[in-house]
Design a protein that fits this description.
Layout (H helix, E strand, L loop, with lengths): L16 E8 L6 H14 L3 E8 L6 H11 L3 E6 L5 H11 L4 E4 L11 H9 L5 E8 L5 H18 L10 E4 H8 L8 H7 L4 E7 L12 H15 L2 H29 L7 H34 L6 E6 L6
Parallel strand pairs: 1-2, 1-4, 2-3, 5-7
Antiparallel strand pairs: 3-8, 4-6, 5-6
Length: 326
Amino acid sequence: MITVDKSSTEKRTSDSLLSVVIPIYQEESHIKNSIKVIEKILIDNKIVYEFILVDDGSKDNTWNELKSLSKENEHITIIRLSRNFGKESALCAGLEYAKGDMVLVMDADLQHPPEIIPSMVNAWLNEGYDVVDGVKHSRGKENIIYRGCAKFFYYLIYKSTDVHLGRASDYKLLDRKVVEAWKELPERTIFFRGMSAWVGFERKEIEFDVADRIDGKSKWSITRLIRLAINAITSYTSVPLHFITFLGFIMFIIALILGVQTLFMKLSGKASDGFTTVILLLLIIGSAIMTSLGIIGIYLTKIYKEVKARPRYLVSDCIKGGDDKC
């Protein structure tokens, strides 16, 4: 049983530390500007802060840009993963290194508008919420195909779990006790958006419009998005496995109907060769079997990864505010 500290609300003061966790991948062209924009808003609103910047195995000059930032600013901790583990693992690293009374997770490209950070902090500080979710009022400029796939993905999540993530994002502010509860979740295959919803706690939503990227292109290809969707669905719900049972039931009904029809035709002397029916049945049954095996295979892969219990990420370097090591 996991017990969380209920006294954290008593520790909420204007001097409470905000940890800003930002996963970064191939963002050399604008990361310095992004941090300056965010930092100015924090300073203007007198928010005590630290940055936890996680380089997820970038191949460009991102790490050198981060090192330059850390030398200039004692509020910045930079972490370099040994390779590209993926955004979810980078988020996990940031949450585990964050020391703040509250932790804000956001993207590096300013599509999560930093202007609403003061409102999120106020909801935590003065209204007593444990989780403040940034939800999308509009999704910005997105490809029609991508938008349609995203809606279908969230529809599947909602129907299988009753958790509505349709407008959800990774832009969240979490109380320390929520972070500690999240860190207790043992799985290696991570779906941050779903896991942060699963832990519960008192929540408030604040809407934002997704801004245009300040520079560069999105790192999310269609292939990576499909992989993320499959990973998220199979990590968060077992409904696809139940779909196999449903598919088997449907096939049983079809077989029963065709069996009755075949017997009727045979007894009435109207039986025919039925070659087309046999071929169709073989194709349908074969497709159903292969689909079922594929779904089972995905879950077996996840069980295999969990049993191996490899770490979610590996850190190759960590620098805090100009120091050599964290």
